[in-house]
């Protein structure tokens, strides 16, 4: 039977998609200097690698993942390091994957192989469909011993090749051309998690494939967005959303509501950052200036308070009058802020 996703576009999904489109437009129109482009891409890469592996039980914190991403030496369990390094490699491979005309079984298995190499108990399970039954569950203590409690039992092993091929046939057909890329990425994420085609690494593969869809469609061509933080911040909600389709007559509708919540969350984080560094009302179009993190915080504080004295700013950062004047002068020269009054009563405010 051909694959056909079961869902409806609810008011919630439609509202999310509308806000996502508006937020993305702000991001697309932003004239970011290379420094900020690189910062957003770097942070997205690190956060995605940290959150996606953390969801699956990886013990490395964000600082340790950052060290690995920057090729710095750090001490940790080999498996934890390998999982993160694999995920970083897979993220870096997304543009290459997207260059393929179709996402076929060979590419699909390659993504899994990249994610799991050197981390599975049996390396023969890397990059191949599972040959035995698996289940999704957790360990519970029944008073005498720990035992595994199944929370989800995926399709039978014998059905996996057929289900994967039917899914990929649908994905590579003309049927998806009219589907919003956010909805499409959500469908891909869910269906891979549902089939559970591999012995291990299904969640990471599902999240990577969703990221690949968003990149390939042009939605996240600048690679700024971090969906995995949304899942990692509340894993209970993430797993609960994935489970809704097991009982809902509406199929994956509630999952797509949750998924679009996550995309909107990611969009808003990037948009908020861009709006902070884009506070340039007096600068001519195309003439954006580069601001330091300290200067951004100064602008934020002045916007928040309405007016702020030099002393208030010095106390905030713990720096000398001379050092503060150096930071302030660039903002004044760019006509972002202005000095009002003289002496002890002087204060800075956002320029009109």
Task: Write the SSE topology.
Layout lengths: L10 H19 L4 H22 L6 H8 L8 H21 L6 H12 L19 E6 L4 E7 L7 H12 L9 H15 L6 H15 L11 H6 L1 H9 L9 H25 L15 H13 L4 H8 L3 H13 L3 E4 L6 E4 L2
Antiparallel strand pairs: 1-2, 3-4
Helix pairs in contact: 1-11, 2-3, 2-4, 4-5, 4-8, 5-8, 6-7, 7-8, 7-11, 10-11
Describe the structure.
The chain is mainly α. The protein folds into two domains: 11-277, Fido-like domain (Fic-like fold, Orthogonal Bundle); 293-350, Arc Repressor Mutant, subunit A. Helices cover 56% and strands 6% of the residues. The chain is built from 14 helices and four strands. The chain has helices spanning 11-29, 34-55, 62-69, 78-98, 105-116, 160-171, 181-195, 202-216, 228-233, 235-243, 253-277, 293-305, 310-317, 321-333; strands at residues 136-141, 146-152, 337-340, 347-350. A two-stranded antiparallel sheet has the order 1-2. Strand 1 (136-141) and strand 2 form a beta hairpin. The longest helix has 25 residues, at 253-277. The N and C termini lie far apart (64 Å). Mean pLDDT is 89; it is low at 279-286.
């Amino acid at each position: 039977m051909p694959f056909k996703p079961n869902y409806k576009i609810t008011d919630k999904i439609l509202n999310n998609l509308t806000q996502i489109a508006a937020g993305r437009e702000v991001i697309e129109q932003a004239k970011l200097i290379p420094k900020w482009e690189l910062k957003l891409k770097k942070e997205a890469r690190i956060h995605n690698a940290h959150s996606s592996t953390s969801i699956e039980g990886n013990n490395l914190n964000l600082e340790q993942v950052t060290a690995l991403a920057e090729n710095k030496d750090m001490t940790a369990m080999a498996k934890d390091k390998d999982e993160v390094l694999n995920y970083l490699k897979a993220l870096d491979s997304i543009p290459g994957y997207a260059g393929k005309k179709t996402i076929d079984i060979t590419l699909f298995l390659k993504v899994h192989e990249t994610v799991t190499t050197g981390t599975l108990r049996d390396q023969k399970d890397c990059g191949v469909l599972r040959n035995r039954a698996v289940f999704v569950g957790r360990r519970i203590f029944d008073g005498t011993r720990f035992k595994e409690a199944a929370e989800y039992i995926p399709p039978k092993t014998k059905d996996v090749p057929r289900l994967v091929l039917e899914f990929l046939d649908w994905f590579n057909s003309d049927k998806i051309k009219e589907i919003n890329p956010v909805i499409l990425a959500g469908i891909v994420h869910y269906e891979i998690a549902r089939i559970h085609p591999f012995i291990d690494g299904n969640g990471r593969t599902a999240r990577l494939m969703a990221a690949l869809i968003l990149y390939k469609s042009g939605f996240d061509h600048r690679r700024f967005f971090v969906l995995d933080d949304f899942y990692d911040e509340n894993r209970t909600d993430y797993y609960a959303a994935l489970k809704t389709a097991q009982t809902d007559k509406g199929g994956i509708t509630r999952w797509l509501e949750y998924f679009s919540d996550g995309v909107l969350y990611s969009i808003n984080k990037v948009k908020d950052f861009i709006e902070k560094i884009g506070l340039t009302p007096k600068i001519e179009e195309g003439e954006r200036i580069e601001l330091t993190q300290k200067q951004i915080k100064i602008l934020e504080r002045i916007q928040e308070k309405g007016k702020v004295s030099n002393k208030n700013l010095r106390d905030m950062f713990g720096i000398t009058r001379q050092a503060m004047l150096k930071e302030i002068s660039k903002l004044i020269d760019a006509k972002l802020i202005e000095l009002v009054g003289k002496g002890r009563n002087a204060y800075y405010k956002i320029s009109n």
